[in-house]
């Protein structure tokens, strides 16, 4: 049986939905950054060290206590608006997307999924390597685009 837990290092250990995931710092930072972009919280592109630190603290601690950047200050100042969009929690979705990406990577590594780039959609798709039906389609995610942080 394939191992169910993802590990890239031991800088961050987080449990989510019964899985335990261990990340090295760079892997975790990249996944949190990608999750924030996917949610529309930040624009695509390179974030500054302090911005990454604030996002990592938000994803791991559920809050930003001492902002390191303009992004962190924005998160603290606008938390009442940002924490929930509709019924959706920003912290939950950051964590979910980090774990979804690690879970998918682990499934690909174990040859339980194959990944393909879809030119038309500009996204990856996953399928069963044994030729079965498509194993999963990634569910849509809520959007924080209207509240997106923009550098001034």
Brief overview:
This protein is an alpha+beta fold and 152 residues long. 39% of the residues lie in helices and 17% in strands.
Written overview of the protein:
The protein has helices at 25-39, 49-61, 70-77, 79-82, 90-109; strands spanning 6-7, 12-16, 19-23, 84-85, 88-89, 114-118, 123-127. With 152 residues, it is an alpha+beta fold. The chain has one domain (6-147). The strands form three sheets. It has a three-stranded mixed sheet. The chain has a two-stranded antiparallel sheet with strand order 4-5. The chain has a two-stranded antiparallel ribbon with strand order 6-7. Helix 1 packs across helix 2 (49-61) and helix 1 (25-39) packs across helix 5. The longest helix has 20 residues, at 90-109. It is globular, with a radius of gyration of 16 Å. It starts with 5 loop residues before the first strand and ends in a 25-residue tail after the last strand.
Instruction: Supply the helix-strand structural class.
Output: alpha+beta
Q: What is the count of helical runs?
A: 5
Instruction: Give the terminus-to-terminus CA distance.
Output: 51 Å
Q: What form results from the Cα inertia axes? A: globular
Largest sheet: 3 strands, mixed
- Measured by DSSP, the beta-strand proportion falls in 15-25%
Helix content percent band: 25-40%
Q: How are helices and strands ordered from N to C? A: EEEHHHHEEHEE
Tally of individual domains: 1
Give average pLDDT, whole number: 88
Number of E strands: 7
Rg computed from alpha carbons, rounded to a whole number of angstroms: 16 Å
Spatial strand sequence of the major β-sheet: 1-3-2
- Ranges where pLDDT stays below 50 over 5 or more residues in a row are none
């Amino acid at each position: 049986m394939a191992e169910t837990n993802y590990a890239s290092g031991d800088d961050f250990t987080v449990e989510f939905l019964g899985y335990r995931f261990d990340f090295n710092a760079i892997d975790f930072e990249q996944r949190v950054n990608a999750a924030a972009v996917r949610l529309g919280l930040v624009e695509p592109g390179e974030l500054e060290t302090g911005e990454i630190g604030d996002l990592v603290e938000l994803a791991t601690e559920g809050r930003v206590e001492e902002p390191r950047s303009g992004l962190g200050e924005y998160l603290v100042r606008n938390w009442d608006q940002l924490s929930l969009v509709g019924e959706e929690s920003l912290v939950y979705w950051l964590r979910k997307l980090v774990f979804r990406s690690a879970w998918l990577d682990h499934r690909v590594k174990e040859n339980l999924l194959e990944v393909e780039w879809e030119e038309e959609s500009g996204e990856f798709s996953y399928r069963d390597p044994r030729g079965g039906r498509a194993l999963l389609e990634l569910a849509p995610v809520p959007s924080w685009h209207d509240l997106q942080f923009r550098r001034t």
